[in-house]
Known about the structure:
This protein has one domain (about 5-125): CBS-domain, CATH 3.10.580.10. A hairpin with a 2-residue loop joins β5 and β6 (about 115-120). It starts with 6 loop residues before the first helix and ends with a helix. By secondary structure, it is an alpha/beta fold. It is built from six helices and six strands, in the order αβαββααβαββα. The protein has a three-stranded mixed β-sheet. It has a three-stranded mixed β-sheet with strand order 4-5-6. The longest helix is centred in the N-terminal third of the chain and has 11 residues, at about 25-35.
Amino acid sequence: MAEIKRVGDVMMSNFTKVDGIMKVSDALHMMRTKKINAVLVVPRDDSDVFGIMTLKDIARKIIAHRRKLHEAHVYEIMSKPVLSVTSEMPIPFAARFLTNFNVSYAMVIENNDVKGMVSLNGMVDVWED
């Protein structure tokens, strides 16, 4: 039997964090430059939590409503809180966890520190049965 891959095997350790006050136009430019589909939004203070903004958020909340990218801030369209998993979680359980909440991304947390991000696409790319 093949060894089950874990989140740590597929997580993106080169994720990007942004401030919620950033304009969506600037965030999108950065995402295009870095060829990424999501950014983590840093908490404002110790009582806040991480958020996430994806290309899907931009499509649904900006483009579909004919809003202007340069007039909207990331905090207006991000999703919050972000689900988190550990790097040791087996991929089948992580995939089930994300799909149960109808989301495509989760933070990978170790010792209360964000170590990366994992996506359903990344899990599918490496899955072999």
